[in-house]
From TrEMBL:
InterPro entries: BRCT_dom (IPR001357), BRCT_dom_sf (IPR036420), Ribonucl_H (IPR013520), RNaseH-like_sf (IPR012337), RNaseH_sf (IPR036397). PROSITE patterns: BRCT. One of its GO terms (cellular component) is cytosol. The lineage of its organism: Bacteria, Pseudomonadati, Pseudomonadota, Alphaproteobacteria, Hyphomicrobiales. This is DNA polymerase-3 subunit epsilon. Residues 207-293 form the BRCT domain. GO terms for biological process: DNA metabolic process.
Length: 293
């Protein structure tokens, strides 16, 4: 089910921001099963949107115990790929607030799984803002569950929309306490999220466990998301990730967005002609293959 106020014109002042929260099906951060987005302007809630998401993967009982979302609840829900345009429209080039950066990491991984083109926004971690302005809560912790009690807030914790609204309201309280604007508060934890321009590649060592364990992967070409996030995902699946094609390379993962073969693809083909066991596969195909297993 998708719920929202509907399309309407919203005035965007200097203290305009959106707050976001996600719930996940299992320990993989990209396994989003619910996402909620709340829009604030001039410190007032002006719009809200929430949807269940079919993560197309297994649910862990521990996660169900936290948010009570079951496989049956999302059976007929849209996939992340199907709601991505709405998510991007609400978040792109905006000031985005979440309570910890778990939600940013989850959305980044979900973008990779869905093979979608990323977007940029400025991200505020409201938990860090609280650390600066209310250090007295350090002993009990800065999580939403504890702050709900400390601030006397009423909301259903671990419902994505309610948690998103709570994160936004916490920023509003921080503004009132500090007499600072949204951007000024953001300087306490501001993180520029750009998943359109990949950073310099890093060499990541392989892991013993995972479906890609034993593989040495190299990324090539333009990807629909941040190359660093793609590298991290492949590494979490067990693969070693190297910046260049060598005699050790067993898997060349291409973004699938380039019109002509890259230098790395040409080099991999040369190694293959010499008898080296090396597979060239696009990211979308690889993700689909891993999902089937």
């Amino acid at each position: 089910m998708i719920f929202g106020f509907g399309k309407k014109e919203i005035r965007r002042g200097p203290d305009h921001f959106v707050a976001v929260d996600v719930e996940t099906a299992n320990s993989e951060r990209g396994s989003i099963c619910q996402i909620g987005i709340a829009e604030f302007d001039n410190w007032q809630l002006v719009d809200k949107w929430v949807t269940l998401v079919n993560p197309q993967c297994e649910f862990d009982e521990a996660n169900i115990g936290v948010h009570s979302i079951t496989p049956d609840a999302v059976r007929n829900a849209p996939s992340f790929g199907h709601v991505y345009k709405q998510i991007k429209r609400r978040m792109e080039n905006r000031l985005v607030v979440s309570h910890t950066l778990f939600d940013q990491e989850a959305i980044s991984e979900a973008i990779i799984y869905a093979a979608k083109v990323g977007f940029a926004c400025d991200w505020i971690d409201s938990s860090r803002v609280v650390r600066h302005l209310w250090p007295e809560y350090r002993k009990k912790g800065f999580g939403l569950g504890n702050l709900k009690q400390e601030f006397g807030m009423t909301f259903q914790h671990h419902d994505a929309l309610e948690d998103a609204i709570a994160a936004g309201e916490i920023l509003c309280m921080a503004a009132k306490k500090s007499n600072l604007g949204a951007r000024e508060l953001g300087e306490m934890s501001l993180k520029k999220i750009s998943i359109s321009y990949p950073p310099r590649a890093e060499k990541l060592e392989g892991k013993k466990d995972g479906p890609l364990s034993g593989h040495v992967c190299v990324l090539s070409g333009d990807f629909p998301s941040d190359k660093a996030n793609v590298s991290k995902l492949l590494n979490e699946l067990g693969a070693a990730v190297h910046p260049n094609v060598t005699k050790k390379t067993s898997l060349l993962v291409v973004g699938g967005l380039e019109d002509t073969p890259t230098g790395k693809v040409k080099k991999a083909l040369e190694y293959a002609e010499r008898g080296q066991s090396i597979e060239i596969v696009d990211l979308k195909t690889l993700v689909g293959r891993l999902k089937r297993h």
